[in-house]
Amino acid sequence: MKLQPLEFEKPVIELEAKLADLRSSSAASDINFDSEVQRMEQKLEEMRKEIYSNLTAWQRVQIARHPARPFSLDYMQLGFQDFTELHGDRLFGDDAAMPGGLAKIGNHRCVVIGHQKGRDTKENLKRNFGSSHPEGYRKALRLMRMAEKFSLPFVALIDTPGAYPGVGAEERHISEAIALNLREMMVLKTPTVAVVIGEGGSGGALGIGVTDRVLMMENAYYSVISPEGCAAILWKHRKHAPEAAEALKLTAGHLSELRLIDGVIPEPMGGAHQNQENAILSLKDAVIRELDALVKLPMDQLLEERYQKFRRVGEFAGDMA
Prior knowledge:
CATH class of the largest domain: Alpha Beta
Low-confidence stretches: none
Distance between the termini: 54 Å
Structural class: alpha/beta
CATH architecture of the largest domain: Alpha-Beta Complex
Order of helices and strands: HHHHEEEHHEHHEHEEHHHEHH
Number of strands: 8
Oligomer: single chain
CATH superfamily of the largest domain: 2-enoyl-CoA Hydratase, Chain A, domain 1
């Protein structure tokens, strides 16, 4: 898939084009441009570091939404072994926006589920743009309970702008489906890990995110509302999304400081879409590391630590008067 540059990446793309032209001219003539090529390569490397080391919250949101980023099925098929997809919630139907099934990661046989987006219009329509229906969350709960029954760890890959808010979803009780998942994940008797791999929007993300360990990819975001939605409410216009993104403290760095997540998984420079293989390997290593630690804990301790982890959310020290 051809990578489309984001607005803030255009200076890098322009310099890369000039460097390619210079190399082409050097190859086509007898003039030695090696020193100029070397100087431009150094300038390009410095520019990349300058841009990608100082990304704003809004720029990270844009990277999180990049259509060339690895999606859940990419991680399931390349980061896990022997992935076998399971379908249906046994109540209404199957939700293509929430694929999941049996797999193996490292030495751990597990159940994995995640939100799935599409890379083109046809696939996005099939996957409902990564916004799951109630049956998606009920399928997730069915697989969670199966993981518990067979003592398999459960891994969730979060990448959604939010649960689907349509009439059909409301008729089939999307709020109840998510709420039930929140309750049941809190007491699930098996180790659980969630990774926000792209967008982590609202209850749609939280519906599979109440886990023993919550990790985030470096350029993912996790928020109660999208920047555009927040801007529409507070500033009455979506153009203020960059300010909203900063105010929401939704990046991996912000959430790590607030102790709302348990770890940040590094991405290749420029984002996971720049080197999918390395990004998938980084996630795989992080998940294996967390599962190695979690499976050693007695079940009573695992459940108590999970309970205390979420009880601490929102606690602040000092005088709040």
